[in-house]
Design brief:
The protein has 231 residues and is of the alpha/beta class. The chain is 35% helix and 23% strand. Helix 1 runs antiparallel to helix 2 and helix 3 crosses helix 6.
């Protein structure tokens, strides 16, 4: 199966190069293929910032916090906690795979702090100071839905908009680095609703978002964007 995926990925990259060649100088095609098939840039840099220190012996501490304004949607009452758990697990796995000395504050401690400080999101930097962190990642979940609009909840097509803020605790005067993450899942298609339990689809959606958001803070393999679900 792994070999099949590599062949599929290779075909996709070749096709991308051909498409690129139709609008670009065809002489750039070999360079494109080299870059994407194990060349110097096959491991893409983070979209926001690499959190690991250049000194591999230096431990970097990170706090991940999520806030949601979706209390009016019963299916998303705990979305901030659920998203934090999935994202932290995926991000820690990414750091471990890349052998980077970065540790995330346990989600239980994060939630305990939030419970004790109901207005914590008004001063995110204070969270970093409390836990003596190097960075704070703040996910502001602005909107989220599971169903395709107009489908009367008969078709899954999830959407989300999340504001992503990165606080460098050593450079607070510069303010946080900001990005907006917008996604659709499945992208460009929909899935029939079967049964009355949306949880399996919701979990896949959260995993999809966690994978995307990891790319904001850790290096990733360019070929990963061509991955397709295992049969």
């Amino acid at each position: 199966m792994a070999a099949w995926k590599r062949h599929w990925r290779l075909g996709s990259l070749i096709l991308a190069a051909i498409i690129c060649g139709t609008g670009c100088n065809a002489l750039t095609m070999p360079f494109f293929l080299f870059q994407r098939l194990g060349g110097s840039d096959s491991n893409m840099p983070p979209k926001m910032r690499r959190l690991a220190a250049d000194d591999k012996k230096k431990l970097v501490k990170v706090v991940v916090m999520a806030w949601s304004g979706l209390q009016s949607q019963p299916e998303f009452l705990t979305v901030d906690r659920d998203m934090t758990l999935v994202f932290c697990r995926r991000l820690q796995e990414s750091f471990r795979t890349n052998k980077e000395n970065v540790v995330l504050l346990p989600a239980a401690k994060v939630e305990r702090y939030k419970d004790m400080h109901p207005n914590w999101y008004t001063d995110v930097a204070a969270v970093g100071k409390e836990f003596k962190a190097d960075y704070v990642i703040f996910l502001q979940i602005e909107s989220m839905s599971l169903y395709k609009p107009g489908s009367h909840n008969q078709l899954y097509q999830a959407h989300a908009t999340i504001g992503v803020s990165l606080y460098d605790m050593a450079q607070l005067d510069a303010g946080p680095q900001l990005e907006s993450y917008v996604t659709e899942f499945p992208n460009g298609s929909e899935q029939m609703v079967e049964g009355n339990n949306p949880l399996p689809f919701e979990q896949k959606f959260f995993e999809h978002m966690a994978k995307d958001l990891c790319r904001y803070f850790d290096g990733w393999d360019y070929g990963d964007q061509f991955d397709i679900p295992e049969p």
